[in-house]
Amino acid sequence: MRYIRHLLILVATFSLGACASMDCKQPPAEVPSGSDKATVAIYLDKNGYPKASAEKVIVAPGQKIVFVGPDQFDIIFKDKKSPIEKPEIRTSNGVLVLEISKNIFDIEDRKNPENKKNNEMVYRYGIRVNGKVTDPEIIIRPR
């Protein structure tokens, strides 16, 4: 598992470095065909701020998001909206798996009906490493 994590971080770092130098936009992370997981690599820029391999992650109910990065990082949901029960989750082993409930649309209709727009839900979250935070998004769309 450690080697896979290091390989993902290495690939993300080189591809994002090339993208940053060409001033291009990162495509969203999506679940590949035949899988139920989207992978997001987390790395630190030259100033120590966390960056994600994708600024948006698009998943469906029942799928997972695997965050791979530094040994210690936190995922913090903003705007009092979270696709899971906890508004903040942390890891100390460099890998964090976020599972989206199969009935997330029913749950959100009861809790936050205003969060569902255009048949999708958007969650702003922060990746925190060493007290510094970045702000990507998770988009949940029905299958």
Molecular structure report:
The protein contains 2 helices and 12 strands; from the N terminus they run αββββββββαββββ. It has helices at residues 2-22, 104-111, and strands at residues 29-30, 37-44, 50-52, 56-59, 64-68, 73-77, 88-91, 95-99, 116-117, 120-129, 132-134, 137-140. The chain has 143 residues and is α+β, with helices and mostly antiparallel strands. 20% of the residues lie in helices and 38% in strands. Strands 1, 4, 6, 7, 9, 10, 11 and 12 form an 8-stranded mixed β-sheet that branches. Strands 3-2-5-8 form a 4-stranded mixed β-sheet, with helices on one face. The chain is globular. The longest helix has 21 residues, at 2-22. The protein starts with a helix and ends with a strand.
Summarize the structure.
The protein is an alpha+beta fold.
Topology summary:
Blueprint: H1 2-22, E1 29-30, E2 37-44, E3 50-52, E4 56-59, E5 64-68, E6 73-77, E7 88-91, E8 95-99, H2 104-111, E9 116-117, E10 120-129, E11 132-134, E12 137-140
Parallel strand pairs: 1-4, 2-5, 4-12
Antiparallel strand pairs: 2-3, 5-8, 6-7, 6-10, 9-10, 10-11, 10-12
CA(first)-CA(last) distance: 29 Å
Helix percentage: 10-25%
CA radius of gyration: 15 Å
| Beta-strand residue fraction | 35-45%
Count of distinct strands: 12
What is the residue-averaged pLDDT?
A: 84
Main beta-sheet annotation: 8 strands, mixed
Please provide the ordered H/E string of secondary-structure elements. Answer: HEEEEEEEEHEEEE
